[in-house]
Specification:
Length: 206
């Protein structure tokens, strides 16, 4: 090989080596990105619990009873007076199940043996029941019978529909009537005692 031709050959070899090294570098895999640590999610904030409504006291005033009945709490008013008293006037929307009935022979009031059965057949145990009568005495008896049969939310309406009076006749406990609250007459239809007692009697087997 002649001297003047060695230089181009050497240059060619150097160029090949440079290009070969560049190609190798270009085939290297790109650097792997360092994974970032995932942020720890913030703990869920517990929702504040809604406090339950306090239980009703054993006795409430007529004013409180009207407030509950006018609200949207699903309260029922159970009138435990006789059918005759109920027909003459009662709290609108009341149910009528007498706790005492008139004995046709003696003309005296006596316990209604069907009271608990009729109540159980027409009023669910979880109902919120306000129990009223003429002045409050019969309502107390009815309330006790209902509690013994499993009713947990009952309250007697003091004063009842007519009002409680002392020996002189003076009103000592305001009533539905004395406060001028609206009332209605009649037997109550499906909410009356005759209809509810009929529903409480199981049909006879054929």
């Amino acid at each position: 090989m002649t001297p003047h031709k060695r230089w181009p050959l050497a240059a060619t070899l150097c160029s090949c080596l440079v290009l070969s090294g560049f190609a190798c570098d270009s085939k290297k895999s790109p650097p792997t990105a360092t994974p970032q640590s995932a942020e720890t999610p913030a703990p869920a904030t517990a929702k504040p619990s809604v406090p339950e409504a306090p239980p009703l006291p054993s006795d409430i005033s007529t004013v409180k009873a009207k407030e509950l009945l006018d609200g949207h709490g699903g309260y029922l008013h159970l009138d435990v007076r006789t059918i005759e008293e109920f027909v003459a006037g009662h709290v609108p929307g009341s149910l009528n199940i007498p706790v005492l009935v008139i004995n046709e022979t003696t003309g005296q009031r006596e316990p209604n043996e069907d009271f608990v059965r009729v109540v159980s057949a027409n009023i669910p145990k979880r109902s919120k029941v306000l129990v009223g009568c003429r002045s409050g005495s019969r309502a107390k008896l009815a309330q006790q019978l209902m509690i013994e049969s499993g009713y947990g939310t009952t309250s007697r309406v003091l004063g009842g529909f007519v009002g409680k009076r002392d020996a002189s006749g003076a009103l000592i406990e305001p009533s539905w009537s004395s406060l001028g609250y609206p009332s209605e007459n009649g037997d109550g239809g499906d909410a009356g005692y005759v209809a509810m007692r009929a529903r409480s009697i199981a049909p006879s087997n054929p």
